[in-house]
Amino acid sequence: MATADFRERMLAGEYLAGTFLKTPAYELVEVLARSGLDFLCLDAEHAPFDRARMDSCLAVARALDFPVLVRVAAASPEHILQALDAGAVGVVCPHVETVAQAQGIAKAARFGLGGRGYAGSSRWAGFATQKMGDLLDRSAAETIVIAQIEEPAGVEAAAGIAAVDGIDGLFIGPADLSVGYGKRDQASPELEAALAAVGAAAKGAGKAYMTFVPNAEAAQAWAAHGLTMFFIASEHSWMRAGATAEAAGIHGLGGA
Ligand code: 3PY
Ligand code: MG
Predict the structure, then answer these.
(1) φ/ψ (deg, to 5) at 17
(2) 30 in Cβ contact with 243 (< 8 Å)
(3) d(Cα 82, Cα 123) in Å, to the nearest integer?
(4) Nearest CA to ligand 1 atom 1
């Protein structure tokens, strides 16, 4: 029941390690589900996941009972519904700057009048094998909605966004935030202050707090801000780092 329990683990503040999947290939879900990572996030914002390839990745994730989130291309009801119906355990919604936007994504991801369209026939719903009442309960217990705070305005509004019913966590985006503060790297006092402010907002509302980090060492440095869930690099960086190290090992054979 790894997928069913994932939201509870996240809200309990367990340290969770995941990565952004950039290559839209279900084989990589199979490989990484056996890695010790707690979750994956398909990056449909910045990588080429069309609906069919997202679907195949999520089919494998559900078959393996491995929690997979989708960072939607945009925080629209269509993208949110498609990811959840296909079997994502939750959605990461980029560029949430206002309380109204947070209310909109929370509504789009939850059942109820004007919210997520109901279909018992989707993969998430068990292909018409589950009762409506049970599915409504499952959605409330298991579906994760994460707001990405990655603009200065989002930092200002973070306490209000965190307090929105139906928002489960805040994801601070260090790259977009740094760009938004007019910086050229991710080491500014403004970013440090934002990490602290958004962390306080998440803590105050009892919501999860997470971010992107290049590696576990960087996570260690930022964990003091209350971050417990880390999206570490991507399979691209890990693959390239492995290849680079081995190539350097071979190229060094003739030396010394
Ligand atoms: C950001 O830092 O802007 C992100 O979106 C991290 O993935
Ligand atoms: Mg971003």
Answers:
(1) -115, 130
(2) no
(3) 11
(4) 173
**Amino acid (1-letter code) at residue 112:** G
Atom of ligand 1 nearest to the CA of 177: 3
**Element of type H or E holding 43:** strand 39-43
Distance 6 CA to ligand 2 centre (A): 23
Q: Which domains, from first to last, does the chain contain?
A: 2-249 (3.20.20.60)
**Angstrom distance (rounded) from CA 168 to CA 146:** 6
Active site residues: 46
Q: Report the C-alpha gap between 91 and 43 in whole angstroms.
A: 10
Nearest-CA residue for atom 5 of ligand 1:
173
Checking 177-184 for CB contacts under 8 A at 24+ apart, the result is: 177/149, 177/150, 177/151, 177/152, 180/150, 180/151, 180/152, 181/152
- pTM over the 0.85 mark: yes
Ligand 1 pocket by Cβ (under 6 Å): 150, 173-176, 212
Residue type, 62: R
Residue located via tokens 């935030």: 177
How is residue 78 written in tokens?
Answer: 């269509």
- Rounded-to-integer distance, Cα 157 and Cα 189, Å: 19
At residue 254, the pLDDT reads: 84
Stretch (H or E) spanning 164: none
Q: Tell me the per-residue pLDDT of 116-154, one tens digit each, with 9 for 90 and over.
A: 999 999 999 999 999 999 999 999 999 999 999 999 999
Closest alpha carbon to 6 in 107, 138, 100, 104: 138
Q: Is 171 helix (H, G, I), strand (E, B) or coil?
A: strand
2: CB partners within 8 A, 6+ apart: 65, 66, 67
